[in-house]
Amino acid sequence: METKAKLNLEDGDPLDDIGHYQRLVGKLIYLTVTRPDITYAVSMVSQFMHAPRTSHLDAVDRILRYLKGTPGQGIWMKNNNMTDIVGFSDADWAGSYDRKSTSDFCIFVGGNPVTWKSKK
How far apart are CA 18 and CA 25, in angstroms? Predict the structure, then answer.
C-alpha cells in the first residue's frame, strides 16, 4: 500500500456483504504474524471493519495480489550463533486522518525478530 494513500469513510459505495470483507481482513490480520511486510496495509484496512466500502475492498484486493506475487516471503529464523539484541522504534504523531498517533517497535535477537508491536 502506498504510504500516502489515505482511506476514508466517504470514498466508494458501501459493500453489500460486510461479512465477506471482515473475514478477508481477519485472515490477513492472522497472516501478519509471519508476514510483517503487510502489517501497515492490513492495519489501514482493518480500521473500516464496521462500514467497509468498495475502495477498502480494492485495497484488500491489492494486498492479496501482493501476497500472490511474493511467495516464500516472511519471517525466517536462522541459527547464526549471535546473541546481539537490537531494537528499532518509530512514531507518527497525529499523522492519520483522525489525528491519532501511531507508534511501533521491533526487537531482534541474533538477527531474528522476536517481538514487534504497532499501536494507534
Answer: 11
What pLDDT digit, counting tens, does each position of 34-68 carry? 888 898 899 989 999 999 999 899 999 999 999 99
Q: In whole angstroms, what is the distance from residue 26 CA to residue 29 CA?
A: 5
pTM of the model: 0.64
Longest dimension (CA), the chain: 54
| Residue 103 neighbours by CB distance under 10 Å | 13
